[in-house]
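Intended use. Records like the one below are meant for learning the mapping from a protein sequence to its folded structure. Do not use them to infer anything beyond what is encoded.
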Amino acid sequence: MTYKEYKDAIEKLKRWAYAYYVLDDPEVSDEVYDKLYKEVEEFEKKNPTKIDKTSPTQRVGATPSKEFKKINHLTLMWSMEDVFNSQELKEWLERIYKNSNQKEIEFYIEPKFDGASLNLIYENGRLKSAATRGDGKVGEDVTLNAKTIPSIPLEIDHKGLIEIRGEVVIPFEEFEKLNQERLKEGKPPFANPRNAAAGSLRQLDPLVTAKRKLHFYPWGVGYNELNYPTLSSLMEFVYSLGFLPPFKRGVVKSFEEIEKFYQEFKEERDKIKVMLDGMVIKVNDIQLGEDLGYTIKYPRSMVAYKFPPVEKITKVVDVIPQVGRSGVITPVALLKPVEIGGVVVERASLHNYAEIKKKGLKIGDSVIVVRSGDVIPEVTKVLTSHRSGKEKKITPPKVCPVCKKELLQEKILIKCQNLSCPARVVNSIVYFGSKECLNIQGLGEATVELLYKHNLVKDVLDLFSLKKEDLIKLPSFKEKKAQNLIDAIKGVKGSECWRFVNALGIEHIGEGASKKLCGLFGLDWYKVSKEELEKIEGIGEKMANSITEFVKVNKAKIEKLLEYIHPTPPTKKVKSSHLTGKKIVLTGKMSLPREKIKERLESLGAKVVNSVSKGVDLLFYGENPGSKLKKAKELGIKILPQEELLKELK
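Structure written out for the chain above:
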């Protein structure tokens, strides 16, 4: 085989693989494919310096990783709001029409595959990296594993930098085979296809992933320099690059058309070879979607219309109170085990004791339990007609089940206010030092439990009075380990304000809300009234209540922690400038990281958008600007080179 014949053979194998895996319409038999594949392998063995990186043989063969590295996504991978019925869908549509001031809007419909989200980055036409969703900003590097999935092209006909996002799924047939194999090997079976897909994608050995026969379905695009006006046209472009299109998709304009699509999806879900848990509805106009904006967690322009949850009948064996990280007491139903959607359910949420009273639930009752996707199983209905008369009444606890201290009754919530309660202390300290909070190395669950067991910590404040000589006396602690922990605790001084707020473990307050609080109020966030908090977009009454209740109980502790940690308030402040209120588009390669440019422009009051439209005021361009520059010229938008941009930023 000559080098030219080798290159031709690679192109043939790519075409045949595309026909087989994407079009589901094989052009040749397996025998013919395998024969040519072996010829290519032979050529590569004899000519290792001439191996084409996009050759099908290069999908598998890398040595197993020792750990997964982290990869930053170029743009944020958002979560998505869910709706579960037609009324919730109507309410979402009403918000869209109201916020857009438009009466007619197109919506792009596609299936919601239930698998593991994956972010692919292509540069100069080659697959550069693949990462799991992670926290939306940073994911795990699973590039070698992604390359083993035949429906992920190693090369695409697009030279620009682009993020293509989608879902990795495993067919039901492969899922069953995989679980049978695991049982034979004495391993626990995967609970459902989603877990199997996620587990397969996160194998340290790519050879294991390759055996799982995974599929990748794109559902969106992150960073890109494209200029498509609609999501439907953008996704058609993505499919044209060699990606697997969904079995059904379309554009609609009304509630009735959306409902029709939804009913069709529900009817077809059992015929599809992979798991679906609903359909996704997105505003088709890309610019309008950007204009609608975002909440802390998700874009306002899209929603997942979930399928009806799976439900089963079982019995309530007992109800136990569970103490959460913030001290909230939640009643949990212990159930007679029942399989729901491939998962054995033994516990279900009852939310609060007021809900138990409302439902009239008793121990021994037959109940309907619902499980939908990742939602915790829930008791939705009590079947009173099944009663025998031996059922027992459920009474709310008056003392904490863990520390035995009296509980505070507060409307529908019951809380343990004892800050030294073991149920709260260990969990709250572990969370306090976790990566997404203050990132105290060496302060894992086992260490915290050990510290608590030996009376070295009774609450978070005790961390800052730990001494090396006390730590050395503990099992498994030597001088170096003890010193490392002391240094790690000291190292939190000067941590970012939002990390401190997040570390407190306030109910409903995560990273996004913590950043918003610190951005608006700095270190005085805990002095803000409930009324002021409620006015903040994305906070609302529930979160405001949570913050004020936490501060009321823990104000002295917060102020003491502030003395120990001295958090750094955010320096980002919006200044009034001639760019305030201006919509700006960036295109081409810039001499500074785009995220930094965006942050700086926003600090000057500007809004950076991705698409060129009539509403854009200014476009800055760098090297190889592409089609956005052309469109800006056509629309008469003011255009400036990046040199002018750098002057503005100074």
